[in-house]
Amino acid sequence: MKPERTPGRYIREEDLRRLPGVIEYKPVARYSYSAGQALSEFLRGLKEGRILGKLCPSCRRVLVPPRVYCEFCFIHTTEWVEVPGTGVVETAVVSYIGTARERLEKPEIIGVIRLDAPGYREGSFDFAGLFHRLCGVTEDDVKSGRVIGMRVRPRWRPPEERRGSMLDIECFEPVQP
Amino acid sequence: MSLWKKSRVVDVIHVEGRMETEKYVYTPGLAGVKVAEALIEGKIMGVRCGGELYIPAKTYCPDHSEGELVEVRGPWVIKSYTIVYEDMYGEKLDKPVVVALLGIEGARGGLIHYVDVDPDKVRIGLKVEPVFKPREERRGLITDIMFFKPVEHS
Amino acid sequence: MKPNIFVKDKVAIVGAGLTLFRRRLLETPRELAWEAAREALNSAGLTLKDIDCIVVGSAPDAFDGIHMKGEYLADGSGGFNKPLVRVFVGGGTGVMVPAVAWWHVASGLCKTVLAVGEEKMSHAYPHPQGVFAYIWDPILERPLGPNLIWIFALEMRRYMHVCKASKEDIALVSVKNKRNALDHPAAQAAANITVDDVLKSEVLVWPVQLLDISPVSDGAAALVLASESVARRVTDTPVWVEGIGVTTDNTHWFNRDLAYPRYLEYAARMAYKMAGIERPWKEIDVAEPYDPFDYKELHHIEGLMLARRCEAPKLLREGYFDRSGELPTSPSGGLLGVGNPIAAAGVMKVAELFWQLRYEAGARQVKKPVHKAVANAWGDLMQVGTVVVLST
Q1: Half-sphere exposure of C328 (CA within 13 A, CB side)
Q2: Distance (Å, rounded) from C-alpha A70 to C-alpha C318?
Q3: Do strands B127-132 and B145-150 pair parallel, antiparallel, or not at all (unpaired)?
Q4: How far apart are CA B127 and CA C233, in angstroms?
Q5: What single string gives the DSSP state of each residue in C97-124?
Q6: Of A22, A43, A100, the CB nearest to B13
Q7: Residues 184-223 (C) with a CB less than 8 A from some CB of A
Q8: Residue B13: inside a domain, yes or no?
């Protein structure tokens, strides 16, 4: 049976500690990320409680998050438009862990929201959307699938707390009928 | 305006961030374990591949065969050197530091290490020897050798 | 079959080698590359002197904690004083490596290529998932404090919704692959488990649970690729690389429907066209779809057009994808069973097809006769599809 040989020496974490010559190193690289042309304006819009998109003059799709080009038509997007912020939940999950895989005290619900704006061509595959937390829905809504297709809108932070960040939107919450 | 563009830097938002992880723990590797054990014993290892001796020691040879780890003994000779006046942040050091590529006759490759010598006296071909930390402080790392110093003429 | 007129040389795989896949190995990354490369060369009956060019695949530098990994891995991979390229397309790297090796040989530039995939994920503490944080967009995504698994969970949830697939349906992939891996000598996560075990394992990001995911691994894998003239000289049973496909979608993953892997369909169409395959679901005998998560195998079976959309869960239940089934998938045990040292895992999948097509897989050999095979890998933000079609 191939492979006939599989070299490699497994070592447990405890045994690693006992080995000579183990090196530990902590890297910290600091960055200042530029939000760039389109996203800077988008973040300023969030501060004012507005969701801004860019309109592609060729295919007429609205890009949210905005970019200075439409990657399909490969041309400059010229016009800013404000989108309503309402939309439907495309998919959602319940996270029990944080970034470094630590258990969270309280699970979070995260989703992708398909906004009420025109997408590419018929918009069923490529659409204007955001990725954010969901509130006002339960774990059971996610697991049963009730949440998918649910109409939601952004819940904004109070204006004085907004600082031009994705977190100016606290979460997306269901639109009460 | 067809090409909408912000031209002033202040109009572009910047977001502070950093890339970090708690730490990396590097495994020493197959030859690395033996090299580390030797350093604790106050020995420096090389690898013999056919007729050639290479420094530093590695598990494998240039032709991909497995090498034989052997102790290398001096005298060590400075093959090239540089004199460092600033640290990695560009701050002036109190005292210049000599960093050298050290080799031994008949071996290929060499080690990079500090040499404790007056920058005015350093020269290529100068014979040096390693100065180890006290045995109980050695951890199997290259820093178990504190520095090299010129061999005293007796 | 439609020959590709632009190809100077037909390309064959003539050797393959693996290290163990484990949570933590003593070897340094380049020692792992060396061990796998040596196994591959030995299996082909070649030495480093016979190799013209080197292709190295390794995923983000942040895993090994060493920048410029291609250069770092050069001597261990046998790539010094020779042309060497390091390729990196996230998880797609593993199958990108043989694809890039293919174009080195097919172009006529090199007669023999040593192709190595290596990953050492155990260096990063407390968990390599923390390092994954930096693949997220710093403006739009990182403020939410995401974990890498979120994106897969979102995709899995969407797939479940659109295809009406249950958690039980999807868990069957994990059961199958971990069982297949029992016969794999390098396997890290081989086990006889049940659907119930998967559903009872730790819930990480619902719907993703611990046993839905491949483990964190160290390991390396290597292949030797050669032109037709060399291949016919060194072996009686070369395995031909008939087609390759590579597609990258954009990073705006939350601007598109996650239920279907468009990136993979495009890559697969490219590879099938090159290989003259018109009906992959009939013509492919054995497949190694990329399975870092269990739903991903089903997703990729559909993207590779080995099943109709949303049909994979049903076929899986019927045993269609078992080793004794009509179209065995991940006979090696896949990433779920053998382990997931990212770039090495994709190379391992291609190595498995190499052994399957030569009837050398022993206990892992699929029951049916095999002639054509396909492997894929996928990476970045639901973006990269890499496909290789092999035949005897």
Answers
A1: 27
A2: 44
A3: antiparallel
A4: 53
A5: HHHHHHHHHHTTS-SEEEEEEEEE-TTE
A6: A43
A7: 185-186, 203-208, 218-219
A8: no
Q: Test B19 with C34 for CB contact under 8 angstroms.
A: no
DSSP chain B: --S----SGGGS-EEEEEEE-SEEEE---HHHHHHHHHHHTT-EEEEEETTEEEES--SB-TTSPBPEEEEE---EEEEEEEEEEE-TTSPEEEEEEEEEEEEETTEEE-EEEEE-S-TTT--TT-EEEEEEPPGGG--SSGGGEEEEEEPPP-
Question: Shortest Cα distance from B17 to chain C (angstroms)?
Answer: 8
Residue C138 domain-assigned (yes or no): no
Owning domain of residue B118: 26-150
| Count of domains for chain B | 1
The whole-angstrom distance between B23's CA and the closest CA on chain A is 4
The answer to whether residue C226 is domain-embedded is yes
Mark yes or no for CB contact B64/C78 under 8 Å: yes
Chain B 38-77, CB below 8 Å of chain C: which residues? 59-60, 62-64
Closest CB to C141: pick one of A8, A94, A131: A131
* C-alpha torsion angle, residues B44, B49, B50, B51 (rounded to 10): -50
Q: Residues for chain A: how many in total?
A: 177
Structural domain includes residue B70: yes
Task: Verify whether the Cβ–Cβ distance B20 to A29 is below 8 Å.
Answer: yes
Residue type, C185: P
CA atoms of C147 and C132, how far apart (whole Å): 8
> Which among B64, A9, A2, A4 has a CA at the least distance from the CA of C351?
A2
Rounded CA separation C165/B118 (Å): 75
- The residue type of C212 is D
Q: List chain C pLDDT tens, one digit each, 392 residues.
A: 445 667 888 999 999 999 999 999 999 999 999 999 999 999 999 999 999 999 999 988 888 888 888 889 999 999 888 999 999 998 899 999 999 999 999 999 999 999 999 999 998 888 888 788 888 888 999 899 898 899 999 999 999 999 999 999 999 999 999 999 999 999 999 999 999 999 999 999 999 999 999 999 999 999 999 999 999 999 999 999 999 999 998 888 999 899 999 999 999 999 999 999 999 999 999 999 999 999 999 999 999 999 999 999 999 999 999 999 999 999 999 999 999 999 999 999 999 999 999 999 999 999 999 999 999 999 878 889 999 999 99
Using a CB-CB distance cutoff of 8 angstroms, which residues of chain B are in contact with residue C33?
Answer: none
Instruction: Report the CATH number that the domain containing residue C111 is assigned in CATH.
Output: 3.40.47.10
Q: Is residue C313 in a domain?
A: yes
- As to burial, measured by CB atoms within 10 angstroms (0-12 exposed, 13-18 middle, 19+ buried), residue C374 is buried
Chain A residue at shortest CA distance from C146: A99
- Is some CB atom of chain A closer than 8 A to the CB atom of C380? no
Query: Rounded to an integer, what distance in angstroms lies between the CA atom of residue B127 and that of residue B104?
Result: 9
Let me know if residue C159 belongs to a domain: no
- Chain B nearest CA to C171, separation (Å): 32
Number of domains chain C contains = 1
Task: Write the pLDDT tens digit of every residue in C139-178.
Answer: 999 899 898 899 999 999 999 999 999 999 999 999 999 9
Please tell me which of the candidates B23, B35, B40 has its beta carbon nearest to residue A25: B23
Residue C73: domain span: 11-125+215-391
Q: CB B29 to CB C27 under 8 A? A: yes
Q: Do B19 and A31 touch (CB under 8 A)?
A: yes
The DSSP result for C335-360, as a single string, is HHHT-B-HHHHHHHHHHHHHHHHTT-
Which residues touch B39 (CB under 8 Å, ≥6 apart)? Answer: A20, A21, B138, B140, B141, B142, B144, B145
Cα separation, B23 vs B51, whole angstroms: 40
Chains with 3 or more CB pairs under 8 A to chain C:
A, B
As for the ipTM of the complex, it is 0.89
